[in-house]
Design a protein that fits this description.
The structure holds two protein chains of two kinds. Chain A is of the alpha/beta class. Helices cover about 35% and strands about 25% of the residues of chain A. Chain A starts with 10 loop residues before the first strand and ends in a 23-residue tail after the last helix. Chain B is of the alpha+beta class. Chain B has a domain of about 60 residues. Chain B has a five-stranded mixed sheet with strand order 1-3-2-4-5. In chain B, β4 and β5 form a beta hairpin. The longest helix of chain B is centred in the middle third of the chain and has 17 residues. Classes of the chains: A alpha/beta, B alpha+beta.
Chain lengths: ~575, ~130
């Protein structure tokens, strides 16, 4: 079971759902256990189930000594729980002995003891090799017999005898005003005492069980609600007192790609619990339909618990946003379970949910909306039921998508039944009113273990399902819907204008550059032409000078005969000077 | 007096010899069964007491069967015996049960519906518990 009991203290599993978890393995083996409680609390049923499960599941035959009901009455009573006593008796797995004491027909004439009872029990135990005993309820002896002191000592002897025979016994007792049992049986049975209680609050009956004491063993200390249903007793839910569920690393799609991106691009963890909260008409159910659609598309089974809409209505409504759920129903992947919250009590709802989940073994469960359960019980009870439901689903590794309706006017970041701390991821859907219209916004309030987007997205319900849009966040503030569309158009045209202006300026610059480039080229050409012209002039001038000097030399020679030109160069004759500039 | 069947042995039946019945209305015949547990002092005392009472008040009109439940546990269930010793008056009807060691003669007589007339005539000497 949950924990191995310490050496020396063996446990005897009851087979009763939940009780073995609370007692960490069952009742103390070979010892008597007192089960006490008021009338109609289910003491006898608990005892009978202990015997029947022992006989059918653990191979331990049992004896029932009934002081109140005959064997036939008992068989009839437990037949409603699916136990066939007659067959067990025929197969020698069970002995039911009705012990009947009618005071009016009995005269006490002296000393006596309960040896006959011992003989009866001994005989019954030996006849089938019984390991378990139910004494229901031994206190009836006090009504049938006068001599209480004899009775007390004999009961003490009886319990000792049970221990000596190593019989695991359940002894039922009516609850007294100040004591746990009317005749103080707890004084004699000190190994294990279980108290049953039923309370009616706001017309809804809740049964509760508490292990008052369990010598030599730890046990769950709280009051646990329990149910008596068509297949037996169950202490609910079957959640152990420890948080031991395995965390799955696999991520699954939410069915909305944009939402997956908000969840770090991969969606949420498998087996996590996702809360979708929002005011009326924010699209909670539509969002869950995406989860369902995606899960079914992956081939996972899915159960949709609806407390508001019928299956037909849901299918029709989801078709209007392009999600065809009917095909998954036809394939046997999707199961709808629509029930009015007021049709039965809270615990019963939980049982139904448990049973359906156990039968179908889905990969994902939708509860829409959990706030509907508030009609079936008080807020604190609903919370506890929900807590147990969430833990139950987590233990089974089932992804839970839970919607909750937030009433207008209340704080958004607070769920009606305060389940937010229990869930792993919380999607908040909200109305955003602006520009004379109402639009939907979505954001992730928390997502344990996932780096998630902190943005508010606009949430659109289109003919192709849910779409997420970036919310406009600009100079004009947060805009959604047509306001966002208008603003986006405005922004677009402004951007275009700006772009055109830039282009125009660039063009202008280009042209200017071209003009300047052309001017520069022209000037350079002018310069080159001028340069060429000047050089030609210089060359001509130089030629002129050379020619002039030669001419002068020839003239001198012709004038002075044989005198060289050097004789006549005493400064009288001067050659014309050439300007260096060559101009 | 018929010897008492020792408890612990096979159940013994003692039948009082039928003597002439009293005149007047016919007195009923008593069929009694005493369930005891082996040879305990309490069992022995019960046997002794019922024999004395029967002999004194029901001479020759009673059948007494002593049954040791250790040896015949099946009777215990059939007869709805819870405590020992138990004396069952099977006849005359209705069935009555007397529990205890039968040392309280007045209550035994009342429980067995034995006519008070007879009580006043001769109170019997019964052995009380120590």
């Amino acid at each position: 079971m949950v924990e191995t009991p310490p050496a020396g203290l063996l446990k005897c599993p009851t087979g009763i759902r939940g009780l073995d978890e609370i007692t960490l393995g069952g009742l103390p083996r070979g010892r008597p256990t007192l089960v006490c409680g008021g009338a109609g609390c289910g003491k006898t049923l608990l005892g009978m189930e202990f015997l029947v499960r022992g006989a059918t599941e653990f191979g331990e035959p049992g004896v029932c000594l009934s002081f109140e009901e005959t064997a036939d009455e008992l068989a009839g009573n437990v037949a409603s729980l699916g136990f066939d006593l007659a067959s067990l008796v025929a197969r020698k797995k069970l002995v039911v002995d009705h012990i009947y004491l009618d005071r009016s027909l009995i005269e006490e004439t002296g000393e006596y003891d309960l040896e006959a009872l011992f003989v009866r029990l001994d005989h019954a135990v030996d006849s089938i090799g019984a390991k378990r005993v139910l004494l229901d309820s031994v206190e009836a002896l006090f009504a049938g017999l006068d001599n209480e002191s004899v009775l007390r000592s004999e009961l003490r002897r009886l319990f000792r005898w049970l221990k000596e025979r190593n019989l695991t016994a359940v002894i039922t007792g009516e609850r007294g005003t100040e004591t746990l049992s009317r005749h103080g049986l707890e004084e004699y049975i000190s190994d294990c005492v279980i108290l049953l209680d039923c309370q009616v609050t706001e017309t809804v009956l809740t049964r509760r069980l508490r292990v008052v004491k369990y010598r030599g063993s730890t046990h769950g200390m709280n009051e646990y609600p329990f149910l008596i249903e068509s297949d037996g007793f169950s202490v609910l839910p079957v959640t152990s007192i420890y948080l031991k569920h395995v965390a799955c690393n696999e991520r699954i799609s939410t069915g909305v790609p944009a939402l997956d991106r908000m969840f770090g691009g991969e969606g949420c963890y498998r087996g996590s619990s996702i809360l979708v909260s929002g005011t009326a008409g924010t699209g909670k159910t539509s969002l869950t339909a995406h989860f369902v659609d995606a899960a079914c598309a992956r081939g996972e089974k899915c159960i949709f618990f609806s407390f508001e809409e019928s299956a037909d209505q849901l299918v029709r409504n989801m078709l209007s946003i392009g999600i065809d759920l009917a095909r998954w129903v036809r394939k046997g992947l999707l199961h709808f379970h629509s029930v009015r919250p007021t049709s039965f009590g809270l615990e019963m709802h939980l049982v139904k949910i448990h049973k359906i989940i156990d039968e179908i073994k889905p990969g994902i469960v939708v509860v829409d909306p959990v706030t509907g359960l508030l009609h079936a019980g008080t807020a604190s009870e609903t919370r506890s039921v929900l807590l147990r439901l969430i833990y139950f689903l987590k233990e089974k590794g089932i992804t839970a998508v839970i919607t909750t309706l937030t009433n207008g006017g209340t704080v958004m970041e607070r769920t009606e039944i305060e389940v937010s701390s229990l869930v792993d991821a919380w999607l908040l859907l909200r109305d955003i009113e602006s520009g004379g219209e109402r639009n939907r916004g979505l954001y992730i309030l928390k997502a344990r273990g996932i780096a998630h987007s902190n943005q508010i997205r606009e949430f659109l319900l289109t003919a192709h399902g849910v779409e997420l849009r970036e919310v406009y966040l600009g100079e004009a503030g947060l805009l959604t819907g047509s306001g966002r569309v208008t603003q986006e158009a405005k922004d677009a045209s402004a951007a275009m204008l700006a772009r055109q202006e830039v282009e125009r300026k660039q063009l202008l610059l280009q042209r200017k550059r071209k003009v300047l480039d052309a001017q520069i080229a022209a000037l350079q050409l002018d310069l080159a032409a001028e340069e060429q012209e000047s050089q030609q002039l210089i060359a001509q001038e130089q030629l002129k000078i050379v020619k002039w000097e030669r001419d002068r030399g020839e003239m001198a020679r012709s004038r002075f005969g044989d005198k060289g030109p050097e004789e006549h160069s005493n400064g009288r004759v001067k050659a014309p000077r050439l300007s260096r500039s060559g101009a | 007096m018929t010897p008492v069947t020792a408890p612990g042995k096979a159940p013994g039946k003692t039948r009082a010899p039928k003597i002439a019945k009293a005149s007047g209305p016919v007195a009923p015949h008593y069929q009694l069964r005493l369930f005891v547990t082996g040879t305990t002092p309490r069992s022995a005392r019960a046997i002794q007491n019922i024999r004395a009472i029967c002999e004194a008040y029901l001479p020759s009109r009673y059948d007494l069967e002593v049954i040791d439940i250790y040896q015949h546990p099946e009777h215990v269930k059939a007869e709805q015996i819870v405590v020992t010793p138990t004396l069952v008056r099977q006849l005359p009807h209705p069935v009555r049960k007397l529990i205890g060691d039968l040392s309280d003669t007045a209550r035994v007589l009342a429980g067995l519906d034995i006519a008070p007339r007879q009580i006043s005539v001769s109170p019997p000497e019964t052995k009380h518990a120590a």
